[in-house]
Amino acid sequence: MLKTKGEQKSLEISAERTTLRAEWLELWSYRDLIGILVGRELKGRYRQMALGPAWIVLVPLLNVFVFTVIFGKFAGLPSDGSPYALFSLAGVSVWTGFATAVTRSASSLVNNMPLISKVYFPRAIVVIAAAAGSSAEMGASVLAFFALGAFYGVLPTARLAALPAFMILALAFALGLGLSVAALSVRFRDVGFGVGFAVQLLMYASPVVYPTTMVPSRWRPLFQLNPMTSAIDGFRWCLLPSGAAPDSRGLAVGILIAVGCLWVGIQLFRRAEATVVDVL
Amino acid sequence: MFSRTAALEHPVIRAEGLGKCYMVTQSRLSGATVGEPGARPSGRSPIWSRPQRRAKQDQQFWALRDATFEIAQGQVVGLVGRNGAGKSTLLKLLGRVTKPSEGRAFVNGRVGSLLEVGTGFHPELTGRENIFLNAAILGMKRGEVLSKFDAIVDFAEIGPFLDTPIKRYSSGMYVRLAFAVAAHLEPEILLVDEVLAVGDLAFQEKCLGRMREVGAGGRTVLFVSHNMAILSGLCSRGFLIEGGRLVQEGTMADVVSAYVASCRSSQSSRLAERTDRSGDGRLRILSVLVGTPAADGESLLRTGEDAIFRIRYEAARAAPLRNVQFSLHFFTELNQPVFNLWNELPGRQFRELPPAGEVICRVPRLPLLAGSYVFNVYAEVGMTVADWVRGAGRVRVVDGDYFGTGRTVGAGQDLVAVEQDWEVA
To answer: Which residues are paired to B14 by β-bridges?
Structure first.
């Protein structure tokens, strides 16, 4: 229904930035749009592909196949007592979602320029939608894990209930990075260009193909500065019967860093937001 | 946040000293490029501010300044002004696509906008999906959209292509859908920027009709157009914007005549000194002399007599110019295009020209009927725009003996005289 005149608020347009609270409320009022953009993000990604949505499961499985052959068989990396394929798939499922969330959200402003330059809505929505869309990838990988797990005779346990928490940790960190990169890429295009490479590097600094236990204990605190360490360990704990609970101090640090990163991202983005249309 | 005392009972839009500043980076190669808005009111510069070393080359450019006005509910307001005067900037600010650099505006109601051919469409999505996307951007619920859906599809005439991605649409289909969506999703305020030029005539008519309905239905429309006839027919109120300033507001008829008059007076200033030109400046047009074989530089032509246009130019560097093209495009006072004089049309090419000189265009037996006409002058060097001045000059045509029968045609509604033969079949 159209609002009647009485309840209509006057919208102020000015150079000043609105308060953070007002921005949250505005984001909330645009939640339908987030849903539509997430749907678009997913549909758009697999449209015009012969295998379509099957890719969402195929990519992590193919990755795991390669990792199992190279790191499991040839390099003989340990896997904390689980079959290496399952061990790496648990890591890959968070990681793939995280990586797509970062790269997608980083380029979301540029990708959505046709929309942004013509009509107003809170710009953060395109970044949030890009990151949120990647949770579907994580979910699909987890389903792939159950399929492969059944093959190895590994069944889900009650610990699965904690999985969404680690998903949120990974996505919050991804959104923080994505917002920062999106904000900076308004100014410097090279930031967007370098992000793919940086994410690649970060994968080897995260326990995706090897267990955290392989990292010498004196380096562990440094290693745990990366929130993905706790997120991946958390995923393994939830999915693998032999998975160890993530180190609680490491987890606390990871959460702190992820939240800090999200805060920095929000601040950077709020400043860059105003000039996006003029610069891009 | 809430409007304070106001002259109007319920202004739908109220602007107070609204302004938008861009930084223009001067670069010899590419002319001017527009960068970020400057003059952050807070004075704080974030880390992504332009590096210091380039600061000297940047200049502030106020696309719009000091715009103060009120618009009441249901008014259909026409914005007129030359290209680059700030009309589109004003619409962008009101549509919140970009933020103002100073001042403020209060907007009451849902804003639908059609800025520069296109609305918030996503090229990868189908027509159907884009309708829902737009509705969500406007803040409408799904049920609301469904009730309007058929009307939109009908109006846009895109039925068979509803599930085709927008990127495969023709530009006509695209604009039709854009207009249909913007006009049917019941925004309380509709911003329309010069989009109708793309559609065919029948569709233009339909759009104008729809805009009339929207206005009559108590909604507010802000409409930018260069077509004075359309503006006069549609708008009750007009704003004249010149050089980023709102210089006049009043009835549409008054504003149109003020605009026409201002074009006339500014064109008397010498072409070489004009700064409202675009192009990379490799060549600069100094003057366009209009005359007849009998009298040079009269700016007065006669129907049926030969007309001569002399374009004097100068290159930025003292080297011969290669592959140069010149064009003089004529319009009526109401901005209706009439004809184009362009050396490529009759197949004349200027492969090499001296760095300064003059080219001459002759029009035998001018077919234009009596009246006043405006022309744009345009020059291209090696496929890129070198100089382009809109409204570069004006010619007056007086009645003449086109057919050599001693009978003049008279102006009336017509624009041209046409050679004709009559006989009994």
So the answer is: B70, B106
User: With the C-alpha atoms ordered B290, B291, B297, B300, is the resulting torsion angle positive or negative?
Assistant: negative
Is A118 within 8 Å of B142 when comparing Cβ atoms? Answer: no
Is B39 part of the contact surface with chain A (CB cutoff 8 Å)? no
Distance between CA atoms of B120 and B131, rounded to whole angstroms?
A: 10
Tens digit of each residue's pLDDT (9 = 90 or more) over B50-96:
444 444 456 678 888 888 999 988 888 999 887 778 888 898 888 88
Please judge whether B119 and A16 are an interchain contact, meaning their C-beta atoms are less than 8 angstroms apart: no
Calpha distance B276→B86 (Å, rounded): 13
Strands of B177-296, DSSP E: 189-193, 220-224, 237-242, 245-251, 277-278, 283-291
Q: Is the dihedral of CA B311, B316, B319, B325 positive or negative?
A: negative
pLDDT tens digits for range A64-97: 899 888 888 888 888 777 888 888 898 999 999 9
Torsion (CA) A68, A72, A75, A80 in degrees, nearest 10: 150
Buried b / exposed e along A104-119 (16+ C-beta atoms within 10 A): bbbbbbbbbebbbbbb
Distance from CA of A55 to the nearest CA of B (A): 19
Q: Do A187 and B134 touch (CB under 8 A)?
A: no
Could you report the predicted ipTM of this complex, rounded to two decimals? Answer: 0.76
pLDDT, mean over chain A: 84
Which pLDDT value is given to residue A176?
94
Domains in chain B with CATH codes = 11-43+55-265 (3.40.50.300), 271-398 (2.70.50.60)
Helices H / strands E in chain A, number of each? 13, 1
The minimal CB distance from B1 to the residues A12, A40, A272 is found for A12
* Interface subset of B 136-195, CB within 8 angstroms of A: 136-137, 139, 141-142, 144, 186, 188
